[in-house]
C-alpha cells in the first residue's frame, strides 16, 4: 500500500472515468490501484490520461466531461444518499446496507440466509435508541 500525497482528495474525475469505462471491477481496481498501490495523484490530468489508456479510452478529457457521464455520477450519488450509503466499501443487498470491510462476513451470512435479521434480537437492535451523541466543539 502506498498512500497518495494528499487525502482526502477530489475523486470526481476518477469516478467519471470509472463510469466511462463501464463501471466494472476492472475500472474500479485500476483507479484504486493507481491511488492506493502506486500513490498516484488522480487529480493530475496526466494520471487520468494514463488510466484512460489502460481502460481503453482514447480521449480521457472528452469521456470525463461528457454530460451523460456527469449525470450518471449525479444519479449514482443521489441513489447512494437516499439509501444511507456511508463509507467505502458499502454493500447494499435488497433493503440492507453493510458498511466497511468488517461487515463482509455479515453480508455473506445475510446472502446465505436473508431471514438473518428477522429474529427478535436483530429487530430489537434495529430499534435500539442512540445512547451517546458526540457534541461538536463550539
Give the gist of this structure.
The protein is mainly alpha-helical and 138 residues long. The protein has helices spanning 12-20, 25-37, 45-54, 60-64, 67-82, 104-112, 120-127; strands at 90-93, 96-99.
Task: Please state how the strands of the largest beta sheet are arranged side by side.
Answer: 1-2
Poorly predicted regions: none
Rg measurement, Å: 19 Å
- Note the gap between the termini: 37 Å
Mean pLDDT: 92
* Number of structurally distinct domains: 2
* Number of discrete helical segments: 7
Largest sheet: 2 strands, antiparallel
Principal-axes geometry comes out as elongated
List the helices and strands and how they pair.
Layout: H1 12-20, H2 25-37, H3 45-54, H4 60-64, H5 67-82, E1 90-93, E2 96-99, H6 104-112, H7 120-127
Antiparallel strand pairs: 1-2
Helix pairs in contact: 1-5
What does this structure look like?
The chain is mainly α. Helix 1 (12-20) crosses helix 5. The longest helix is centred in the middle third of the chain and has 16 residues, at 67-82. The chain has helices at residues 12-20, 25-37, 45-54, 60-64, 67-82, 104-112, 120-127, and strands at 90-93, 96-99. It has 7 helices and 2 strands; from the N terminus they run αααααββαα. Helices cover 51% and strands 6% of the residues.
Q: What distinguishing features does this structure have?
A:
two-stranded antiparallel sheet, mainly alpha, 2 domains
Amino acid at each position: 500500500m502506498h498512500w497518495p500525497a494528499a487525502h482526502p482528495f477530489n475523486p470526481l474525475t476518477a469516478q467519471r472515468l470509472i463510469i466511462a469505462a463501464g463501471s466494472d471491477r476492472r475500472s474500479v481496481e485500476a483507479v484504486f490501484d493507481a491511488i492506493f498501490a502506486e500513490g498516484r495523484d488522480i487529480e493530475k490530468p496526466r494520471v487520468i490520461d494514463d488510466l484512460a489508456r489502460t481502460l481503453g479510452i482514447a480521449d480521457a478529457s472528452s469521456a470525463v466531461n461528457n454530460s451523460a457521464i456527469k449525470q450518471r455520477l449525479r444519479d449514482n450519488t443521489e441513489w447512494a444518499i437516499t439509501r444511507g450509503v456511508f463509507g467505502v466499501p458499502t454493500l447494499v443487498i435488497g433493503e440492507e446496507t453493510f458498511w466497511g470491510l468488517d461487515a463482509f462476513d455479515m453480508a455473506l451470512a445475510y446472502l446465505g440466509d436473508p431471514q438473518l435479521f428477522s429474529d427478535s434480537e436483530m429487530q430489537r437492535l434495529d430499534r435500539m435508541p442512540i445512547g451517546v451523541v458526540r457534541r461538536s466543539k463550539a
